[in-house]
Amino acid sequence: MVVSLPSLAFLGAGSMGGAILRGVVASGIPVDGGIVATNRTAEKAATLDGLHGVRAVALADTPSGNTDAAASARIVLVGVKPAMVPDLLREVAPVLREDAIVVSLAAGVTLATFAEGLGDDARVIRSMPNTPSTVGKGVTGLAPGAGVSGDDLAIVRRLFELVGAVIEVPEDKIDALSTISGSGPAYVFLLIEELTKAAIGKGFTEADARLMVEQTFIGATALLESSGEEPAELRRRVTSPKGTTERAVAVLQDAGLDEVFARATDAALARAKEMAAGR
């Protein structure tokens, strides 16, 4: 049985909001009441043209676009830049439906900030999705506020499960989650970039280097998913004693790769806390 979603409003359908929106559309699930997405310019709104069931609104042409969209939706996803969130909340607070669930896509913006703008009784959920949601392979962390019921959380969980896996966490863990799954795709792409450069340095053409590296990452993650084995066990199977892979892995371990990832995620977490403090 196909289960529908209630009406959706994406206030700021930029990179992250747009990723979730496209993932929902690609899933084919019915959305009762449709989807409205706002962007500041006509050019950005035009990028959503052709998406089935989506009404794209340019705020430059329709200044009331955010309030119109928020008033019509059961689930209101806030995807504007973090610094813009307080003003947006004050704008839409008077028109929100009584049963509205507000979902934050804004990194570093706390539930307390939403309570200040919408009232302590507002149903607010902080989310931290990642961009693979566009292709249905995302990871989203959800941290519900005090006003959120079990049914509210279930609806929002169903929305994000359309575009990948969902982890429910307390709010004090959402920023830490963002340093792993939220920023994680960038780490993977950086590894692909650097290994591709290494392949080119070995004399391969850029096309062949990209094919080797990208397909290796795709294949390795597919093998991990299908095998059910731990990554360490799969690594051991590739690493023959006294072989070439063992020598390469030793170099990576000697370089302190574990410490590098710890430092990188610590830096991301520190920045999230700065953003939450308005810096």
Automatic annotation (TrEMBL):
Enzyme class, spelled out: oxidoreductase
Molecular function as annotated in GO: pyrroline-5-carboxylate reductase activity
Chief place where the protein resides: cytoplasm
Residue ranges occupied by any Pyrroline-5-carboxylate reductase catalytic N-terminal domain in the UniProt entry: 8-108
Catalytic function, reaction form: L-proline + NADP(+) = (S)-1-pyrroline-5-carboxylate + NADPH + 2 H(+); L-proline + NAD(+) = (S)-1-pyrroline-5-carboxylate + NADH + 2 H(+)
PROSITE patterns per record: P5CR
Record-annotated Pyrroline-5-carboxylate reductase dimerisation domain positions: 171-275
Compartment annotation: Cytoplasm
Residues that bind NADP(+): 11-16
Entry-linked InterPro entries: 6-PGluconate_DH-like_C_sf (IPR008927), NAD(P)-bd_dom_sf (IPR036291), P5C_Rdtase_cat_N (IPR028939), P5CR-like_CS (IPR053790), P5CR_dimer (IPR029036), Pyrroline-COOH_reductase (IPR000304)
Biological-process GO terms, alphabetical: L-proline biosynthetic process
EC numbers: 1.5.1.2
GO cellular component: cytoplasm
Record: residues binding NADPH: 66
Keywords associated with the record: Amino-acid biosynthesis, Cytoplasm, NADP, Oxidoreductase, Proline biosynthesis
Role played: Catalyzes the reduction of 1-pyrroline-5-carboxylate (PCA) to L-proline.
Similarity field: Belongs to the pyrroline-5-carboxylate reductase family.
Protein name per Swiss-Prot or TrEMBL: Pyrroline-5-carboxylate reductase
Protein species of origin: Microbacterium ginsengiterrae
